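Hi there,

I know you've been waiting on this one. I reran it after we fixed the sequence typo, so this is the corrected version. Both the input and the resulting structure follow.
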Amino acid sequence: MVLVNALFFERFGDADVLQYGQLPDPEPRDGHAIVRTRAIGLNFADIYRRNGNYHLAGAPPWILGYEAAGVIETTGERVAFADSPFANAELVSVPREKLVPLPDSISFEVAASVMLQGLTAQYLVEDSVRVTPGTSVLVHASAGGVGLLLVQFAKAAGAHVSGVVSSEEKARAALEAGADRIFIGDEWTKEKFDVVYDSVGSTLAKSLDATRVRGTVVFYGMAGGDPAPVDPRRLMDESKSLTGGDLWNYLTSADERRSRAARMFAMIEEGKLKPRIASTFALRDGAKAHRYLESRAAIGKVLLLP
């Protein structure tokens, strides 16, 4: 039996349950390619899965990760993916329809830092609400992984972008990403915006308060807890819209994945999108990476390197 190094766990719990060791090599299957990973994205969803409170593929030992960049073993083709499990390993079997070609100009590290969060920011600006020049936008957690990229996508669309952060250091990061104005704490509740992007959840009612008549709140995360129910009569009375979003509802085909990724890579090549990598960890040090991400100290993307 051929073995491959991977980061895995066999019971739910804190970062200490993570183990680095050898597991059986993934076997080639029809319609799949074996990808040797060169950089792997770490996301809060991985922490939720490790804790046992998020959907998880397979049976123990579980391998986390849905996002990576690398090369196809048989051809050497550079590829990346955003929505295929078991990425926390040196070799991963990925459905070919979920692989996107990676231009030579985009490094493995940059690709692994944007496949999930960058494509999320993209649909939020292009699809959830069509942001146009002059649109006033508020981005919660604007120094977070999605937030920093969302600021840049909105600016590229011509919006006036305000951000909400929790510290001066994060304020600097959001301003460097292109935000026009930053609020620390609850200062934003005194303003009105055309579009409010809410990934916090518990702030949803306040986000609706801060939305102009005929404006829209885009709800796409619950980092701060579940939101209180919204009375639809309020939406009617105030002519406001509330919409939700999930990346998986947009990556619906191979063509859709590749066209969206190609547009995002072009923005990176043109300098309109500048991913920020907070830190990199060896895959064997995955437990340290999880603790770092959980500390909320990271500004930008955390990567695992096999």
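Quick highlight: The chain has a mean pLDDT of 94.

Best,
R. S.
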